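[Meeting: bench + compute handoff]

Bench side (C.D.) handed over the final construct sequence. Compute side (W.E.) agreed to return the predicted structure before the next meeting so the bench team could plan truncations. Sequence as handed over:
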Amino acid sequence: MQQRVGIVGVPPLTIIKEIARNGDSIIDLDELQVRAPIDQSASRIPRVYCAILRTVVLNCLHLRLDRVYIDVGPGKCDCALHVADIIDDMLAVPVIRTRNQDTRAFGHPLCTSRMPLFEKFSRITKGVQSPHPYLEHAACVPKCGFWGVPPRDFSLLSLFPDTTHIFGWTRCMENKTPADLDLERVFDPALPTVFFSQSFCAKSALAKHLADKHPRAIAIDCDVTAGSSTRAKIEAFLELSGIEPANWSTA
């Protein structure tokens, strides 16, 4: 019988292959899977945790799952280790801690391709559920960069042109090496770049550190949704960098 397997972070490739062999379905618990206020998670997890991990707990409150794999190693974050204990107490199913330290590189053609940034992120996050490499895509000439993790609120991605290159942990996701800190640190100093992190995420320290080293960058963080202030900062940065809004892009 097909089982419903929840994943948090990027499980090791061996786990993804096992799930595929069994014909089970994967539910990405990092993504919002239920229509419920995120504050419902407050009885289980502090509000000062990032919106992604609060979303994990929210999903676990509502979904029927048969087991969960959660990355508690350097490919996710230290906070995930504690969230594993929380959902283990919540659920009457196995919660299996993993540490993804895979080193086989699958490449990152989506990160450098030309397509709407929303679609690129959607394909990359969906690709975590497959043991296979991503399809090849020709690299475009970039106008700007987006460094960081996938935002909980994908709507802010609509602000960027189709010729945005992706860096940071999202590039590590596509490469299927989430613990590759050297790859995560990569950025292009020639590209105006937004360094993004979720509020209360430990990666905000690296985002600020790299943005300070970059000659044309801004560090941005947001919590559950991208409010008008966050969007205005990104729009102003892109405009001052000579980049047209995404819906004006013709080149």
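W.E. noted at the follow-up: The CA atoms of residues 32 and 55 lie 6 Å apart. C.D. will use this when planning the next construct.
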